[in-house]
Structures are given as C-alpha cells and as structure tokens.
Prior knowledge:
14% strand, 6-stranded antiparallel sheet
Amino acid sequence: xxxxxxxxxxxxxxxxxxxxxxxxxxxxxxxxxxxxxxxxxxxxxxxxxxxxxxxxxxxxxxxxxxxxxxxxxxxxxxxxxxxxxxxxxxxxxxxxxxxxxxxxxxxxxxxxxxxxxxxxxxxxxxxxxxxxxxxxxxxxxxxxxxxxxxxxxxxxxxxxxxxxxxxxxxxxxxxxxxxxxxxxxxxxxxxxxxxxxxxxxxxxxxxxxxxxxxxxxxxxxxxxxxxxxxxxxxxxxxxxxxxxxxxxxxxxxxxxxxxxxxxxxxxxxxxxxxxxxxxxxxxxxxxxxxxxxxxxxxxxxxxxxxxxxxxxxxxxxxxxxxxxxxxxxxxxxxxxxxxxxxxxxxxxxxxxxxxxxxxxxxxxxxxxxxxxxxxxxxxxxxxxxxxxxxxxxxxxxxxxxxxxxxxxxxxxxxxxxxxxxxxxxxxxxxxxxxxxxxxxxxxxxxxxxxxxxxxxxxxxxxxxxxxxxxxxxxxxxxxxxxxxxxxxxxxxxxxxxxxxxxxxxxxxxxxxxxxxxxxxxxxxxxxxxxxxxxxxxxxxxxxxxxxxxxxxxxxxxxxxxxxxxxxxxxxxxxxxxxxxxxxxxxxxxxxxxxxxxxxxxxxxxxxxxxxxxxxxxxxxxxxxxxxxxxxxxxxxxxxxxxxxxxxxxxxx
Length: 652
C-alpha cells in the first residue's frame, strides 16, 4: 500500500523544525539529541499515544505529517494532548478537502456514506483499500467482528526502541486481543482473509447477535410470565377456555332471572304511588310555565307604566313652557338675534304660523286625568301579578316537596318488592364483569406468551443457521489457508534476512518454521545430535539482548518483502529505531555491517518502493557505488553543526 512520508513539521515554543523525509533516511548520533522523538512524533500523528520526554514537555506544541497515498496527498496535524487530528488532502483532480477527525476512537461518520469514522479509515479510503473486518473471538465462540486498523498494521511498520528487544510484534502479548489482532494482520498479508471468509464472518456475527437477542427476549418474557404465575401459552389457552365457559353460564343465569322479573306484576300500591309521582311532575311543569308567563306579563306592564309616567312629565313641561312664553313679546329672533319681520295679528311673531286657540289648560287637565287613571290601572295589575307570582312560588315549593315524598315512597316500595330479584342479578352482573376483566388480562398474557414462543422458534432457526455458517466458514478458512506457499515464502525471506545480516549461529542447515496458528518463528539447526531434538531458537529464548533487535528487525523486513510481492495492504514504510541498541559496532562489527548491507541491498533491489527511516547510534553508510539516494542526519545535543531536534535546548 503506497504510504510515502514527505515531511514532518514540528512546532516548538522556541521555533519550528521542518524535517524533510526521503525514501531512505538515516538518523544517528548521541543520546539526548531527540532522534527517537522523530519516530515517536510520526507515530503520534498517526494516532498513537506519546510519553513526552522532558524536552517535549517543555517545548512541544503540535506536529504536522505529510503523506502521499494512492489517491491523494494528505497532511495530518495533531496538537499536544489532543484526541483529534486536523486533516487536509488534495486529490489527483486538485480537489481540496479538510476537516477534524478522531485519531482513534470513532464518533460518527466523517464522510457521509463511506463508513469513514477515524483517521485509519480515512487513510484506507484515500488509498482505495477496503476496511478489513475479522472475527474477534475465534476460540471462545464470540462472533463479533473488529476492524484491522492502520494502528494494527503499524506494528509491522514501526519497530520502536522501547519494545525492540521485549515484544515480538504483540504475537507474544499476554493480552489475547492484541495477540489475535497481530495474527490477523499476518493472515491479511498472507492472503488468508479472502472476501468469502470476511463475508461469512460478518454473516456469522449478525446471525449470532440476532440469536442471542431473540433468546434474551424469550427469556425475559418467560420470566415475566412466570412471575405472574400463568405458565405457558398452552396453560393460558386452557384458562381462557374455562373463563369463557364460566362467562356463558353467568350470562344465562342473568337472562333467567330477568325473565322471572318480567313475569311479576307490579302491585296497585306501587302503581298508585308511581301515578302520583307522574301527576306531581306534570303539575310542577304547569306551575313553572305559569310562573314564566306571569313574570313576562309583569315585566311588560312595569315597562308600560314607566313609559306613561315619563310621557306625562314631558307633556307637563312643554305646557308650562308654552304658558310662560305666551307672555313674551319677541322683537328679535331668539336663535339668531335678528329683528323679526312684521306678522299678522293672528300669527306667531317668531315662526309666522297661525296661532291656535289657547286650549292648553283644558288639554292638560284632561290628559292628566287619563294618565293618572292608566297608572292606577297598571299599578293595580302589577300588584295582582306579584301576589299571584308569590302564590305560584309557594305552590311550586309544596309540589316539589310532595314529589320528593312520593318518589321516596316509590323507591321504598320498589326496593321492598324487587330486592330479592335485583340483588341476585346484580351479583351475577358483578361476576360477569370480573370474568370479562380476567379474560381481557389473559388475552394480553396470551399475546405475550405467543410472542415469547415466536422468539424461541426464531432463535432455534438462527441456531441451525449459525451452525451451517460455522461449517461454511471453517471450510472457507481451510480453503484460504490450504495454499501454504505464502507462509513458506515468509519462512524463506526471514531465513534469508538472518543470513544476510550475519545473525550468529545461522548455518546452511538452519531451518525456520512459522506456525500457521501462532505465527511465531522458530529457528532450528535442522539436525539431530545423539538422538536429541535440534535446538529451537525463538525471540524469547534467543538470549543476548543484542540478538533480539536483529531477530525482530529481520522478521519485519521479511514481512515487508512478502507484502510487496503479494500487493498486500501494508504501508510501504519501515521505521526502525535503534537496531544496534545493545550491539557494539566494534566488537560485533560483522553483525553491524551485515545488517546494514542487507538493508541497502534490499532497498536497491527487492524493496525499491519501500521507504526506510532508520535511527541508530552509529552510521554505516552504503557503499559509494550503491544506487541509493540516502539522506543522512547527524544529531548531537550540543554541537551547532549537528544540532538536536530542539535547537538551544540543553535540559535532560
């Protein structure tokens, strides 16, 4: 997988450090110069945690890594103590994109419809590489799947100084998930994870998850039903049938009691009281109607009386005013004050109309007599109406009281007459209501029980399907792993790297065996001495602390050689930090030179597309005739011509 680092830009409080990265990079020098920090900060940009050195604690702000992938040029910027990274990329069509994405823990889709959630997913997406999923628990029966992320592949791309002589790519890790994930990475490189295997693993995971869900639902509903004491769906059916039979019997009993009640005739006393109640009700309606009509008539007469009184007063005022004005001799108009024209003697001096004879006194007396007579009549009528209304109210109250007494008497008579029959019917009706309620409750419980049964049946179907998928998966895995040529080739490459590097004890008879289950390489001398098994050398028992780094680096190089040959989804980058960590370049000169000659030879031939970043304490440059474009950086903590990573820093 194309993965070329072009630069690492580090921002410190004291300034900015730009580190250009080429295909073959060799960084060497004294302790405390910050050599390993370069590799750690590359790892940090790609999502790793980082333990900051005292220098980085004091100076580090952020880091920006530039990477060329198959389909884009990507920059990754990560600030100190941040869980997110800022990414920016340009495609071949000069399209530009940017954003902030989690470095490791997903928090939702970053690019809609792509499944990209983390930085690892984005790298695969921009490289045109599908995200690989593998089964988490292959021996425990756990069918959940997990992703093989860039961080998992990175175990075989970054041989870090801290674990170069203590851990063999997590294949020996006591944490099973890390060990299994490391095995999955090697299987991916060897081609053991075919599309069919991945599809079956995903189908198995979904089927298993669905089965467990249905079993849990069945168990939960069954336990809930058990707590109610109703039992299974069959038992609930039987209970419902019994309740329906009891309901039918109770309803028939009610019908019989009602038929008996209809056959009985009501006594004369009860009928007389009932008729009396009806009569009193009718009387009450009549009284209410009369009261309403009387109130309406009284209101009309009162209004008429008030109107007559008002008109009489107005007439008296007009007559008085005329009498007063008759004695006034108008010379000017009382409205506009202009002089009045001459009028005939029989005409009004103001309006000019012929004056009527003075009959005001006679008219006023006559009208006054008529008004007083009418007022007396209306007042008398209103008084009579008020008296009648009071009498009707008394009659109404008496009628209401009589009606209540009659109704009480009727209720007592009916209670005495019907109690024997009605009490029986009421009890039966209560029994019917209780049975109906029980039926409704059991119908609900039956629905729940049937649902629980359906979950159980579906879980059984899924269990059968799960078994079939497991058989198919086992066959698919066997088929994928049947071609052992890739594992054998890895054995050859590893042995070749050990031989090229001058690893002690390697002879023409040496054999390397890599278990297809553990993928831990075992090196033997290949011969039996005195009937004894040949000695077996592994990473854990190789002995010398200096041998372990070479052993581990040779395996990493062998894995990359095979990945290049197979076109596997492994980044074409190998960072090796301090392979000569515990080896003296003077006492073990042959191993020192042999290891680097191997790297230079492979970098110039079989691994031309692989980018190397090598960090060590001493320099072993390639031969002058080697066709290699190598960038060498010498770092010391106190030499200006060979400055440290953080210029001017002189701490620990």
